[in-house]
Specification:
There is one protein chain. The chain has about 290 residues and is mainly beta. It has one domain. Strands 8-9-10-11-2-1-14-13-12 form a nine-stranded antiparallel β-sheet, sandwiched between helices. The longest helix has 14 residues.
């Protein structure tokens, strides 16, 4: 597991709500008390409050919400990268300054606060103005095909050319080609590595999505290359207890109807990587500068 300390003592301002109870409580408040929550989480440090985001739909299990998506881009050299908006300094009415990274993508306000869960908000790579590049790199890998690439090698479109016929030992062929890796984690302590899952597939066509807002998001956040198919990426930490789930790689997946889905074998949560939904959660404020 990339981060053994699931609930670090220090969060942006205080220890964050733990586990399922905390997640469920926050989910319930979001539906009925948005104004209350927003004022309660509006900080001395700035930022925070109710946040909309896109992720892989949680279809089974105790996970309180969907798996957050990382909007992607393909560089001119064919390298895969996760979009990281330029950081900007904002000033509150009382003169307090804080840094945030946000931009509009496909009609949606994307912000790096999307990745505030499981203690990720304390990771150096999630700090808005941390000097880390945005390229996706391979980790040690859970798929046999990744023996062909080196750990820490940058992900490239050339590695996914056989996506439409790729198969694993779990699930059906033709679902797409996956890879596991890391993001914004080159110069950070090992325990702060951000694990990611990347898939190239034909199952992400905006024209086939009924919801116009979601379709526009997919069009902008899931790029195509010259071979067709689209890429999609997620932070690979289960929103339940922060374990690292697997896509078509874990033996127990078929027992929970997750043959072709993202499956967490710790507590049997399941996410559909091709059913992208918009949800809300309570974002923490950025800390004040010491």
């Amino acid at each position: 597991m990339a981060n053994d300390d699931k609930y670090p003592v220090e969060s942006d301002r205080r220890r964050f709500v733990k586990g399922v109870v905390g997640g469920a409580a926050l989910s319930g408040v979001m539906a009925t008390g948005a104004v209350t929550v927003t004022s309660a989480t509006t900080p001395a440090g700035g930022g925070g409050g109710i946040m909309n985001y896109f992720g892989a739909n949680r279809t089974l299990g105790p996970a309180p919400r969907s798996l957050p998506q990382i909007p992607m881009e393909i560089t001119d050299d064919g390298e895969l990268a996760g979009i990281w908006p330029d950081p900007e300094t904002e000033t509150l009415d009382d003169g307090t300054e804080f840094v945030e990274s946000a931009e509009e993508i496909g009609g949606v306000e994307y912000t790096t606060e999307w990745f505030q869960y499981c203690g990720l908000q304390t990771f150096e790579g999630i700090v808005p103005d941390e000097d880390e590049d945005i390229l996706f790199r391979y980790d040690a890998g859970v798929y046999d095909w990744m023996d062909e690439v080196d750990q820490d090698e940058v992900m490239h479109v050339d590695h996914f050319e056989d996506y439409d016929e790729f198969d694993t030992r779990i699930g059906d062929p033709g679902q797409g080609k996956p890879a596991t890796g890391t993001w914004r984690s080159q110069d950070v302590p090992a325990e702060q590595t951000i694990p990611i899952l990347v898939i190239k597939s034909d199952h992400l066509e905006p024209d086939e999505i009924d919801d116009e807002r979601t379709a526009e998001w997919i069009e902008a956040a899931c790029p195509e290359d010259d071979d067709g198919g689209r890429y999609i990426a997620f932070v690979s930490k289960c929103t339940h207890f922060c374990c690292v789930p697997g896509y078509r790689s874990l033996d127990g997946a078929p027992d929970f109807g997750a043959d072709n889905k993202i499956y967490c074998n710790c507590h049997n949560s399941v996410y559909d990587p091709f059913d992208i939904v918009e949800e809300q959660f309570v974002s923490l404020p950025r800390p004040e500068d010491d």
